[in-house]
Write a structure and sequence with these properties.
about 40% helix; seven-stranded parallel sheet; alpha/beta
């Protein structure tokens, strides 16, 4: 919801997130500890996390951070399990997203990982532009492998290549994840893919068949990256991801009635 022009009232956010906590997701990306000047929508994240009802859910909370300062704030909240950090394969996009070079961002990752280890949190690194970029900068699966190897050297073991602009084909998805999972069998790889509605099912199938068990999605497909200098392509819609995984025979711990209720509740957030 960070890209919405209007500020979503804190109470509305809390009610919506509490609804999602009842669905049965493994992880819920609920907010961001980032500059309120840069992303005003997330200025109430600290209040939101303090009012989420974690008493009857197994869902783990993930908060996005863009720098060490944000991580220092996030690790102070006991309900949070994961901190997510966007590290880009693209130098241009890294600077647009966090105002840092890739090397500076790697330095931040190292500091945030140390904070996580000291605070009993786990760092999730998203490899933005993980399937290519619109800037004509070098890209290959071997570059993604190089980034992954460096992260593994920091004892980071949840890594999510991200299709920031929705450009990946099913062959791209199968090739990249097949390669990475073979090279780094102890890493939990996530698929953070953006896709038009008609392409969601085949992208989910490609990722799952390649061995990915951590698939990011967003209710009704809201999302997309406004900093990517491209036509905005939304996140994969949760309801379509669930439908495809059901079709593949995956046993999901999802309460689909509650998901339907959460989709209705999303109207108060997104309209």
């Amino acid at each position: 919801m960070q890209g919405l022009a209007h500020f979503v009232p804190t109470e509305v956010k809390i009610n919506y997130l509490n609804s999602l906590l009842k669905v049965g997701f493994d992880t819920l990306d609920f907010g961001s500890f980032v500059s309120p000047k840069a992303i005003p929508q997330m200025r109430d994240t600290a209040e939101v996390v303090g009012r989420l009802d974690m008493s009857a859910t197994k869902t783990k909370l993930l908060a996005i951070v863009a720098n060490v300062r944000g991580a220092e704030e996030a690790v102070g909240f006991e309900p949070i399990t994961y901190l997510g950090f966007p590290l880009s394969i693209s130098e241009t996009f890294q600077f647009k997203n966090t105002n840092k070079t890739i090397e500076q961002a790697f330095g931040e990752v190292a500091e945030i990982q140390n904070l996580c280890l000291k605070s009993n949190k786990q760092l999730v690194v998203y490899l933005s532009m993980g399937f290519g970029n619109p800037y004509n900068e070098p890209y290959s699966p071997e570059i993604v492998e190089k980034f992954t190897k460096r992260l593994v050297g920091m004892n980071i073991n949840i890594i999510a290549p991200s299709d920031t602009i929705g450009s990946s084909s099913t062959d791209d998805i199968k090739a990249l994840f097949g390669h990475l999972i073979k090279k780094f069998p102890k890493v939990e790889f996530g698929a953070h893919l953006h896709a038009k509605q008609g392409h969601v099912g085949k992208k989910v199938k490609a990722a799952y068949k390649a061995g990915v068990k951590r698939i990011d999605c967003a209710v009704r497909g809201f999302g997309g990256c406004p900093l990517a200098d491209n036509v905005l392509v939304g996140n994969m819609a949760t309801e379509l991801v669930v439908a495809e995984l059901n079709e593949l025979g995956v046993q999901l711990a999802i309460d689909e009635m509650q998901l339907a209720q959460s989709m209705l509740a999303s109207q108060y957030v997104f309209g």
